[in-house]
Amino acid sequence: QGKFTLLRDTRTDGSFLVHHFLSFYLRAGCKVCFVALLQSFSHYNIVAQKLGVSLTAAKERGQLVFFEGLKSCLDLLFGEEEEQSGQPSPLQFISTSDLKALFDFVRTSLTPSGSDSWKGPVLLVDDLSILLSLGTTPVAVLDFIHYCRVVVCSQLQGNIVVLVHSNEDSEDEENELVVNSLCHHSDLILWVEGLATGFCKDVHGEIKIIKRLSLELTGEQDHVQIYQYKIQDKNVTFFARGLSAAVL
């Protein structure tokens, strides 16, 4: 509890990790606020059903608060967004560059009420880089994450899982600034990279698991593990480098 997990992908798609954490926390009985900026609800629901979880049922019983950024963004831009219960749209920053409304949405969604029996609050964001594409400044994004950590991790003793795209060779300095800053504050980093040698049907990429022991001020160095993986229809297999089933 109280941990911040960063999902980082380079030269590949790390969204399979988002689907894993979403189904994992729902099965664990946690209250989940999912800020989905990359795909539609039906997309996440179809994948979750393959993993044995129904997002529709989770929404109906109040366990999942799903914010569909794609739809809300279009509604806001074309003037069709209706304010719910007098509250401004969480995507108000598109016109004001202020993420306070989005933070208020997260805080309201995860603050427990008297009748809640969920184990712990979880904030899941896919994908944080989209906020920069919508015109938000890096400082505003980092402030948003900082305030979310204070409320979710510190006050409510919950967890935050955030996905960001990165490309060390790109000229997008703002995105790399956000990615590098988040790496310094994360308790756990799952860094997914495409193979340097190119496409392979038996090995889809490499994952670096970095446990930030240095944050605990014990004098220990960060613990790093590196595996390769292959994504299958309903699960993912991990193995040491060079030890895929195709090689053995």
What's a concise summary of this model?
This protein has 248 residues and is an alpha/beta fold. Helix content is 36%, strand content 23%.
What does this structure look like?
The chain is of the alpha/beta class. The chain has a single domain (3-78, 87-113, 120-240), classed as Rossmann fold (3-Layer(aba) Sandwich), CATH 3.40.50. 36% of the residues lie in helices and 23% in strands. The chain has nine helices and nine strands. It has helices spanning 15-27, 41-50, 55-60, 69-77, 93-96, 100-110, 129-133, 138-155, 173-185, and strands at residues 4-10, 31-36, 64-68, 121-126, 159-165, 188-193, 205-211, 223-231, 236-239. It has a nine-stranded mixed β-sheet with strand order 3-2-4-5-1-6-7-8-9, with helices on both faces. It starts with a strand and ends in a 9-residue tail after the last strand. The relative contact order is 0.17. This is Elongator complex protein 6. One of its GO terms (cellular component) is nucleus. Its main location: cytoplasm.
How far from one another are the termini?
A: 39 Å
The number of distinct β-strands equals 9
> Helix/strand-derived class?
alpha/beta
CATH architecture: 3-Layer(aba) Sandwich
CATH topology: Rossmann fold
Number of helices: 9
Integer average pLDDT? 88
What is the helix content? 25-40%
Kindly provide the name of the CATH class.
Alpha Beta
Silhouette = globular
Please indicate the percent range of residues in DSSP E strands (runs of 2 or more). 15-25%
CATH level-4 homologous superfamily: P-loop containing nucleotide triphosphate hydrolases
Largest sheet: 9 strands, mixed
Spans of at least 5 consecutive residues with low confidence? none
Element order, helices and strands? EHEHHEHHHEHHEHEEEE
With strands numbered from the N-terminus, the spatial order across the biggest sheet is 3-2-4-5-1-6-7-8-9
